[in-house]
């Protein structure tokens, strides 16, 4: 009779599943960024598909935009710390950030202009206009018939990013944030993290009470820089101090702190599922515990996206820590099923973000995808995902399009 092998304790299985990559990049962050890009694509390609059951604030009162900004800061913090402390290259790091900011600024101008040129051949109104919830349509580009009369004004506004696709506006925010990142990195290198966070919060709170748009750029209507900087700055700090934060959460105090974060996340998830404003989502996908008028009042006061309410901020940070912990402890099974897609997309997220603007225009011009059929629309979103993944896999135009 053969010996029956002893069963492995549950803890050993957990260790077998944990993240243990020796790569320089943190693949967990890449994975999350890839997922964020999926949400952005679904929301920006304005057709209703099965993917909307995930994308329309189904994992909390958050959107892909917040994830894009916060994770961009986190990756910058991660990479910069290695350069500053391991390589002693603070000056080089700062120089690289200015260089990248100017690269993305030039890219923004190219995309804005290319969409206008594309409109000569096909209808690019999906990118050149914005339809508000009220139904009102806003033109995001000038009347080019008046170019000869107002060319100086149009060119000036173009250079100042006051035109452009609404799907692309957040890149303007990122450009400005990158311009200020060297100063933040210098303070972090001097161990002035409290100074950085204090300044960030003072600016955020001041703009909440007395909102202003210092750049005058179009993106500030959706992403006011003085409010949204708080996400980027905190993402940068989290990335810069990733190891210290990780060690803290493995202490007794950290375990208590994470338990509180988990409770907060679940409470906010419960709140989100009571949302009566979830568009075309079926009624059975909503909870009906919170009165609709009460929900709307709380949501508009604390969870608005453009002003980045405190409740939304709290939800952003909670979901970041929870998702990172989930990937850390269950990495191997999750990575085996989904990593092949999300990691490459996350590692080339800027490349995908740029290309998805043209995908929005393309899908809007295919009549078959404008019939309101959820299954056909799901096919449309899926085709865009596959196309993006294939372009990343085969590095199409990698020497031209920033990543």
TrEMBL record:
Tagged with keyword Transmembrane: yes
Record-linked Pfam families: OpgC_C
Transmembrane segments: 31-53, 59-80, 101-122, 168-188, 193-210, 222-242, 254-273, 313-331, 338-368, 374-392
Keywords: Membrane, Transmembrane, Transmembrane helix
UniProt keyword Membrane present: yes
Classification via InterPro entries: UCP028704_OpgC
Source superkingdom: Bacteria
Signal peptide annotation: none
Coiled-coil positions: none
PANTHER family: BLL4819 PROTEIN
Protein name: OpgC protein
Native organism: uncultured Sulfurovum sp
Lineage: Bacteria, Pseudomonadati, Campylobacterota, Epsilonproteobacteria, Campylobacterales
């Amino acid at each position: 009779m053969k010996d029956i092998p002893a069963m492995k304790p549950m803890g050993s299985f957990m260790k077998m599943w944990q993240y243990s990559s020796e790569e320089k990049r943190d693949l967990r962050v890449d994975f999350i960024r890839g997922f964020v890009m999926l949400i952005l694509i679904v929301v920006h390609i304005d057709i209703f598909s099965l993917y909307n059951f995930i994308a329309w604030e189904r994992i909390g009162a958050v959107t892909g935009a917040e994830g894009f900004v916060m994770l961009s800061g986190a990756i910058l913090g991660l990479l910069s710390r290695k350069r500053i402390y391991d390589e002693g290259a603070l000056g080089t790091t700062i120089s690289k950030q200015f260089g990248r900011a100017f690269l993305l600024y030039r890219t923004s101008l190219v995309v804005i202009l290319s969409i206008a040129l594309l409109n000569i051949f096909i209808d690019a109104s999906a990118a050149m206009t914005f339809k508000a919830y009220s139904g009102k349509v806003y033109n995001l580009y000038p009347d080019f018939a008046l170019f000869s009369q107002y060319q100086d004004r149009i060119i000036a506004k173009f250079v100042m990013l006051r035109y452009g696709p609404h799907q692309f506006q957040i890149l303007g925010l990122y450009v400005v944030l990158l311009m200020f990142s060297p100063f933040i990195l210098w303070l972090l290198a001097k161990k002035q993290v409290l100074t950085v966070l204090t300044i960030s919060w003072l600016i955020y709170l001041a703009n909440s009470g007395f909102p202003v748009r210092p750049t005058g750029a179009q993106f500030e209507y959706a992403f006011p820089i003085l409010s949204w900087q708080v996400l980027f700055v905190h993402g940068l700090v989290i990335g810069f101090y990733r190891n210290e934060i990780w060690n803290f959460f493995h202490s007794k105090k950290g375990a208590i702190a994470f338990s509180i974060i988990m409770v907060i996340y679940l409470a906010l998830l419960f709140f989100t599922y009571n949302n009566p404003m979830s568009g075309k989502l079926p009624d059975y996908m909503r909870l009906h515990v919170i009165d609709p008028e009460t929900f709307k009042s709380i949501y508009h006061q604390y969870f608005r996206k453009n002003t980045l309410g405190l409740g939304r901020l709290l939800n952003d940070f909670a979901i970041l820590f929870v998702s990172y912990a989930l990937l850390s402890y269950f990495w191997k099974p999750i990575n085996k099923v989904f990593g092949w897609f999300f990691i490459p997309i996350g590692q080339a997220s800027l490349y995908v973000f740029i290309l998805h603007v043209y995908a929005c225009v393309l899908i809007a011009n295919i009549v078959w995808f404008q019939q309101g059929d959820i299954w056909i629309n799901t096919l449309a979103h899926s085709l865009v995902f596959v196309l993006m993944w294939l372009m990343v896999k085969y590095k199409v135009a990698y020497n031209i399009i920033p990543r």
